[in-house]
């Protein structure tokens, strides 16, 4: 069973879309379930995430975790965002069924990949 918060983020996902001039993009996928997530970051000169968007192809839990992770990182520094774990994403949603925990892994992993992409592009 999904929590009310998971259902809310699935039926009313936040921050859906792309950022045309994103300075960090991360994409991950899971061949086992077919979920694909892409996260776009806009980071300012102080390494603060000023905007974040996502596009996810996947189940309700994948969409909900993508939505939640974008809510969790907006306004945070890159270092703060790097601390966000899959467990933190799942907890913020009030929990996920064990069979859907891999979705929170994908959301956290896509965020990490977007941050790595930003750091690589900035030569840091």
From TrEMBL:
Q: Which residues form the NIF system FeS cluster assembly NifU N-terminal domain?
A: 1-122
Entry protein name: NifU-like protein
- Annotated NCBIfam families: NifU_clost
PANTHER family attached here? IRON-SULFUR CLUSTER ASSEMBLY ENZYME NIFU HOMOLOG (PTHR10093)
Molecular functions (GO terms) = iron ion binding; iron-sulfur cluster binding
Q: Which GO terms describe its biological process?
A: iron-sulfur cluster assembly
């Amino acid at each position: 069973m999904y929590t009310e918060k998971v259902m809310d983020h699935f039926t009313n996902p936040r921050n859906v879309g792309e950022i045309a001039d994103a300075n960090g993009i991360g994409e991950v996928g899971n061949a086992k379930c077919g979920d694909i997530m892409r996260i776009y970051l806009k980071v300012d000169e102080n390494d603060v995430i000023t905007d974040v968007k996502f596009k996810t192809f996947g189940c309700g839990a994948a969409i909900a975790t993508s939505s939640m992770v974008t809510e969790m990182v907006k306004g945070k520094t890159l270092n703060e965002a790097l601390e966000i774990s899959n467990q933190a994403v799942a907890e913020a949603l009030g929990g996920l069924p064990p069979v859907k925990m891999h979705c929170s892994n994908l959301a956290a992993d896509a965020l990490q990949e977007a941050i790595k992409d930003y750091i690589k592009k900035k030569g840091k």
